Request: fold
Amino acid sequence: MAARPCLSRKSKQLLRLIPTGALTGDVQWYADEMGSSMALVMTGASTLVHPTVQGGGDWNRLSQAERAAFAHDPSALVALTNAYLTEHGGAGGRVSAHTRRAYAIGIRMLVADWRAVDLLHPSQDAAGDWLRHLERAGAWRQDGTVGPATPSTVRVRLAAGRALYRALRWAGATDADPFQDARAAPEHIPAWEKRQPYSDADIATLLGVATPIDQVIILLGAHAGLRVAEMCGLYGRDVDLAEGVIEIRTDLGRQPRRVAMSSSLIGILEGLGRAADQPLLGLTDSGVRKRLVRLCLQAGAPYRGVHALRHSAGTRVLRDGGSLEDAARHLGHSNLETARVYAKWADTRPREHVSGW
Reply:
């Protein structure tokens, strides 16, 4: 092993961040300090280059980021990315819980798949290879097997990878940008085709065999148009049966969104009886999904996902004569174009034209 040079206090601090187990085998190291810049280079088992450190606050942030990357610590890397999104993300502190959750899943998958990759210095082809891997075997099916991920899922994973490396660069841990030129395969299925709603017949069949709590889930989605996270975040105080509205509260600093309830949903909620401080469902996102899967199997109805209930609400608003603005407002879409996809399912004229041929 090469003779160790004389190390400064900061160099010794940085060296202590490296897990003991990583210093086994024929590992050579040295530290090179030039003014305010410091580089610690390891060769043999792995190679890490630590760039400029400026000031105590930046030093603490840098050491944590580099330690997380070196140890392939997914929890620490997710936390770093969340800190970056809050500080510098496009939505600032208003990044939704759904986005954070999706990025966390993507980062954990990336770290697991890149166990043998130096996260601070990935190869030029590492990101593209990972995306191709996801396209072949990037989705877990309900039966436990692995299959191809959809293009939209791959794009979400790509966004997570880009967010992680923006966070690592923000922390000064690396200059690498492996996802800069990475591209996901194009989507060939039209957006409206992917968002197929439950039919009125499906909804009626599900309600016919559902328990009261399952009926609430179905109608919160198919009538009120709520997302699964919005369902799970509801408390008794958020439901105003007298006015027939639900208030959707977020932790993003926005005003609550008021959503009109159907008479059938009001009737079920009256029988449910929830105190103001009591969760309306008392379920997690995955708990809601599992209940709907079981209910679809029991009813013999196709399982299209919880979000397809929301698509049913958007489609019904338009089919009953509502405008795109009505559908967007009911579903809480900030972009009118997002609601346009429901018009495809609400438009029955092509089927009516050909049915008598």
The mean pLDDT is 77. The first helix runs from residue 9 to 16.
